[in-house]
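Two quick folds needed for the group meeting slides. Do the first one here.
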Amino acid sequence: MPHAEACDVFVIGGGPAGATIATLLARQGRRVVMAEKAHHPRFHIGESLLPANVALFDALGVREQVERVGMAKWGAEFVSQEHGRSVRLGFAEGWNKQLTHAWQVRRADLDEILFRHAAQEGATALEGCRVRDVAMDAEGATITATLDDDATRQWRARFVVDASGRDTFMANRLKSKVKNPRHNSSALFGHFRNAWRAEGEYEGYITIFWFKHGWFWYIPLADGTVSVGAVCWPYYLKSRDKPLKDFFADTIAMSPELAERLKDAQLVDDAVYATGNYSYSGTHCTGERYLMLGDAFTFIDPVFSSGVYLAMHNAFRGADLVATALDEPRCLPAARRAFERYMRRGPREFSWFIFRVTNPTMRDFFMYPQNPFRVKEALMSLLAGDIHDGTPIWRSLRVLKTMYYGVSAVHPRRSWQAWLRRRRNVRDLGPLKGENVLENR
């Protein structure tokens, strides 16, 4: 075996979570190695960012670069066949009037910006470096990886950060990954050129189309293309009996409003992708000498575009935890307990709405938004990712939840049928066959 090179922190994965924490730890003066199995730029789905990301880009010093490659996103549009209408909601309608916009970005562009920036800040950033093994012990870990030429390299690290995305490197080895029993969905997606685009600030809005098997996203990008994806209950994708491209076209036809926007569009490179059964969490996210960030720890439905924000935000907190582990180990047990609670907060707050977004009562709330007790402002703040900075939205969100339960009780038959339908839909039907499975770092 090769000689093990020494470092303070080894980061598995060079996406938003990994690159963010690598940057912050390098700024602390740590010897940081970040290993990415692919080469940037590389394709990833997950293009829609939240206004709360802006402060994180500012703190990292990459905002101008992100702005150059992004399409300004000022809000979201919801389209419901059942209601026969659409509604646009702007982030500026939220509680914090400073959180006005974010960007839609090609993840290949964003991830490369963050990765290169980490290298500029002092991290050793390796591409084409696939981690094969992490052997933990009381003093740290020995990491073994292979390069593109099959050469083997080893590192001896005092701490390991798993930011491997949906590869869930550490969680798989620790058997800590658990499928979410309350949510289970699959997705198919592609990019289109010459698709319809709105005018003015509405051009960059993400659009959510509900249809009978789930919902679609419609994300205009700065290069003129549009990302389109269908998030469906697993039973629907399991019913596929034709090539994926044809199945995707048939699925799009189920939403007349979406089909109209794509009537003159062409699928880029004839490429359609699918991924299945992707909602999960971990039993824990930290150990004495490791932590798991972003999708390496948990992944929830992307309807509110929370993935990149949660990964990056938690990386800031994770950098503090690593510093505690390396510099003040006697304080680590309390810091770990606090971090475990913190890592669950964001997914929990988003998930309450995600689990109910297909419920007819919640759809009514989105399609006919009202603002008693500032509930609309609080909801828009949540959709902007404003859940960690002390904005006083929580009382209003509790009022909104109370309203939801009250309206559901007024329509018992509809609510009961929706509950039964969801219970059937979340059943785990096993892995899909024949799809291109993509991880989201």
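Then this one, please, same format:
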Amino acid sequence: MTVSAADEQATAKGGLDPLQASVAEEDVAAPAASPALTGSATTARRRVSRRALLAGGGLAALAGGGTVTAAALRSDSATTAPVIPFHGFHQAGILTPRQQHVRVAAFDFGTRTDRGRAAALLLRWTSAAEHLARGEAVPPELEPPGSRAAESGALEGNAPARLTVTFGLGPNFFDRTGLTAARPEALAPLPSFPEDQLDPARSDGDLLIQIGADDAFVTAHVLRTLQRLARGEATLRWTMTGFTAADGRRNLMGQIDGTNNPDPGRALLHGPGVPPWLAGGSYVVIRRIRMLLDHWDTLPPTHREQALGRRAADGAPLTGGTERTPVDFSAARSDGVPVIATNAHIRLAAPDSNNGATMVRRSWSYHDGLRADGTPDAGLLFMAWQPDPRTGFVPVQQRLSRGDALGRYLVHETSALFAVPGGIRPGAYVAQGLLEG
């Protein structure tokens, strides 16, 4: 029986593909601010330098704060887990091998936001993330003006567990900061796809934070800390929690995920035409994809493998070999039926089926208990990194939405797109070149 014939019995809906070079260690001077840059402090209105931003945010200037080299990993005294360098050509958390846990969160600016206030927030977040990535407490001078809260010391004595904190900017970030003309064309809204069931309250956002670590306690504390430091400037819009399997690859459908992922470096932006603040950066599409596991589990194993086009046990294509064996899409059975069904996921998602379109998939599983109908609220936090979603994610998803056999057992519930600025030099802050350019 082919996949298409068996799938006539399916009632579920859905669809999708479940995917340093270091800088010099020396500090760099903050670029001069545009005359149009405004902020809450008088000094910030004249020039938003690192020191002025700290003052404008009601903060004491940080005296260096201590930096780590981007050339090597340091072993923490409390554990053998390495510290991931915070600084580099690209932000950590893009090429970093996936940790065991992730918290992904989007924030929205408040009504008083302007360019200067946004810069002050990103400086505060950057400085905090530097300390947290080294396993250090956040200094009290980073607390928002007027705040009576302080670092709880919850991570004191614990290693950072390969912590990475990655920041991104949503399309509305540019409007809220008066930088509409600087918004990249690749950050255009994603098109709607057939049968999407998106929840607007859990989609989009002005700012993105991705927090990865090998300890769920660490990711929870870091998100809470950054949320506290945003008080008065930005509020949490949504947050999602994910994890990886022990082997780091199998998803909740039992499949090996990420086979034939391109070289992760292909997700990074570089070369002529890339704005300096985006060099070494990327674009990320985030989709929360609920798996209809109760339905999936009732299918015969052969049917599940036909829907994907690979064996569940080892990820090898149904045309034979091992996981890394190239798929022979021309192979047919004795009766002429293609070995890889015409609507099999790997056929429709293949670069050859999409004019060479590729994405670096760095996804996570999630399980948030049961829905009101008693079915699992579980699936995939799909995260696709690429240099341009218009030539990466969009064409692949458009093709998958037109008959992907695997898509019958998936429901796309949230969607967001962010531009992720390039790496951060010691003494600078994320997106500084954009906000002060």
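Slide caption for protein two: The longest strand covers residues 376-386.
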